């Protein structure tokens, strides 16, 4: 089925947000987006309403449209949901209800590692949710991936970019998300699911500390 103009414009603007081309604090309008994209204001208005519904943008009086600033609590809540669903998926696989595509998960994590080493935090922050969703794909619950994808976009585009798009703001850490998930994958390969779950629970504690102390992961 051919996509409507409204869908094409919605995907284009959302892509601009999720790749960091539209930044927190940067005001834009239907008119400015129409000029930059070459589309009329009607499909742009429809796209912005959808993005507002998804909590990605908000309308500010006398300013126009801006990216919505995700709160620390929201980031912590969504991270907790993610980890709980990863634990659920791991338990389901341990019970024989699914199987992991471990090589695919490892490939995605390797790509995330490369971005992090290069201090390319925008691509890194977009890649890690792909790792999580590749893990969740092993669950018999078909709604996990699509629901998490919607939730993650609410925080990936807001205050995280404000801090992490600038590599100088990255704290020096002895632990990292990619280290936790490499250990997790190693346990999956060994089919040591209890230790894999333990690793995820340790990661939850680490993530909470990072979010509360730095305001991001």
From TrEMBL:
Residues 3-70 form the HTH gntR-type domain. The keyword Kinase does not apply. The keyword Lipoprotein does not apply. CDD domains: WHTH_GntR. InterPro entries: Tscrpt_reg_HTH_GntR (IPR000524), WH-like_DNA-bd_sf (IPR036388), WH_DNA-bd_sf (IPR036390). One of its GO terms (molecular function) is DNA-binding transcription factor activity. Keywords: DNA-binding, Transcription, Transcription regulation. Signal peptide: none annotated. This is HTH gntR-type domain-containing protein. It comes from Enterococcus casseliflavus EC20.
């Amino acid at each position: 089925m051919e996509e409507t103009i409204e869908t094409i414009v919605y995907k284009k603007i959302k892509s601009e947000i999720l790749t960091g081309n539209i930044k927190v604090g940067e005001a834009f309008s239907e008119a400015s987006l129409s000029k930059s994209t070459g589309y009329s204001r009607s499909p742009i208005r429809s796209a912005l309403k959808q993005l507002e519904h998804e909590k990605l943008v908000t309308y500010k009086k006398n300013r126009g449209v801006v990216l919505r600033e995700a709160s620390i609590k929201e980031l912590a809540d969504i991270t907790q949901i993610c980890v709980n669903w990863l634990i659920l998926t791991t338990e389901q696989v341990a019970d024989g209800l699914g199987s992991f595509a471990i090589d695919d998960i490892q490939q995605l994590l390797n790509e995330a590692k490369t971005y992090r080493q290069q201090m390319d935090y925008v691509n890194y922050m977009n890649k890690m949710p792909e790792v999580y969703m590749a893990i969740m794909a092993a669950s018999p619950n078909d709604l996990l991936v699509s629901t998490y994808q919607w939730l993650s976009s609410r925080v990936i585009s807001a205050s995280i970019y404000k801090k992490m798009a600038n590599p100088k703001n990255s704290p020096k850490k002895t632990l990292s998300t990619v280290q936790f998930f490499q250990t997790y994958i190693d346990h999956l390969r060994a089919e040591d699911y209890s230790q894999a779950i333990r690793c995820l629970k340790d990661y939850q504690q680490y993530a909470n500390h990072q979010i509360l102390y730095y305001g991001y992961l």
